[in-house]
Amino acid sequence: MNQMYKRYSFYCSGGASRIIKFYETNSILDYPIESILYDGVNGDVIYKLKKLFGNKLIVFSVGNDISGRLYSMLNQSNTDYMFCFGKRILKGELLTKYKNKIINFHPSLLPAFPGINSIDRALESSVQLIGNTAHFIDAGIDTGPIIMQSVISKSSYTNYEDVLSLQLKMLNVIWNLLDNSKIEVVDDKVNIDECINENKFFSI
Questions:
Q1: 3-class DSSP state for residue 17?
Q2: Dist. CA 64–CA 41, nearest whole Å
Q3: Which of 23, 35, 36, 167 has a CA-to-CA distance to 126 between 20 and 30 Å?
Q4: Whole-model pTM above 0.70?
Q5: Residue 198 contacts by C-beta under 8 Å, 6 or more apart in sequence?
Q6: What's the angle, vertex CA 138, arms to CA 111 and CA 57, rounded to 5?
Q7: What string of pLDDT tens digits covers the 204 residues of the chain?
């Protein structure tokens, strides 16, 4: 793997399952982070995250100022990009200073089915394709510039994991594109400076 050139952080909620699974299959030496904020109180999750990330982990109670805490964390760690697997809506100065620097992984093919319960709403609809969208976060709800989407047919769906597991492949690809300065945003549209040959992926 190429030497890492950027500085990355994470924000996660709930079971933090995406991040934990990512580092079960990838070395933190290959994908080092500056900091990680977890906004939950689950002791088992905190233990697993602490084991993976040590003193880079910051635990912050839900209901407090998540955006302000993230803003402080990113400033202190000189983070270039943050990957977001959290449940809270981010806002304010955080989004201004870190415009096109915070990446969310949403389980639908945006712009269809933004917001909560997106997989369930897609399954109840007439669409034949479901999947995920990685996008930069802006002040709207799942409206920021789209980086990449992963797709499966509804007929092959068995459970949430069929969709959510694809986010880990997206994270791997996007991380390496960012490291090599292959992603830029021009007029609120994402340009990727190389062809992606990953199966089940396409860029917008």
A1: helix
A2: 13
A3: 167
A4: yes
A5: 169, 173
A6: 110
A7: 444 579 999 999 999 999 999 999 999 999 999 999 999 889 999 999 999 999 999 998 766 688 999 999 999 999 999 999 999 999 999 999 999 999 999 999 999 999 999 999 999 999 999 999 999 999 999 999 999 999 999 999 999 999 999 999 999 999 999 999 999 999 999 999 865 444 444 443
